[in-house]
Each structure stands twice: as C-alpha cells, then as structure tokens.
Amino acid sequence: MTLIQNSLLPLLPLFLSLGGSASGGPILQPNEHYAKVGREQAEKDIRSCASAAEFTASPTRPEMGRSAGGRSTDLWASSGRSDPVQQSAVERCLGNKGYKVIGWQ
Predict the structure, then answer these.
(1) Parallel, antiparallel, or unpaired for β 26-28 and 101-104?
(2) Residue 67 in domain
C-alpha cells in the first residue's frame, strides 16, 4: 500500500459513514482527493451533486427532472431508495470532482 493509503486506513469507518443520513447516500473511498479536501468539503460536494441530480429525468421516475411546484424533489425519497439514474448522475458528478463512490447506504 502507498503511504497515503496506509495513513487513511484507520479513518475508514469515518469515510464509510459519510453521507449517512437516515435515508442513505453515497459512500466515498478514502482516496487522495478526499484526504486533500476533507470531510466537510466532501459533504458539501455530495449535497451539490445530489441537488444537481434532482433535475435528472429518469424513465422510472418521470416526475423527477423538475421541481415539484417550486419545491425541490428529494433524491433519497422517503422509501430510502434513490433512482438508479440519479445515483449514476451523483456518482458521475462526484467522480468529476475527484471522488470515488464505492457504494450506497
């Protein structure tokens, strides 16, 4: 393992809890970018990407892709499941920022 991987290994439980709202969210790999920006910025980036993904239309949820009467729709709906198309949009957005999504909770 590299020095960065070794130094981040003890922090793995912290990284795995990232995005740990009651209804779930992306789990980020503790990579070099995450170590550089820190947890607070990573959480902001997750919220930003999730917000952008709210406007991604999906064949399984056609009501998404627009705000509902001026109210923002929720990526992680009350069912606790997100739409696969929106998950993909969040993963792509986070990847473009330098993160690696390793799963969802």
Answers:
(1) antiparallel
(2) no
Tally of domains in the chain = 1
Query: Average pLDDT for residues 52-65, to the nearest whole number?
Result: 67
How many residues are listed for the chain in this entry? 105
Q: Does the global pTM surpass 0.85?
A: no
Q: Would you give the DSSP letter of residue 28?
A: E
Mean pLDDT of 34-53: 96
Task: Return the sign of the alpha-carbon dihedral for residues 5, 28, 40, 52.
Answer: positive
Q: Which two tokens stand for residue 98?
A: 């330098």
Domain annotation covers residue 29: yes
**Cα-based distances in Å from 17 to 41, 58, 71, 105:** 15, 27, 28, 9
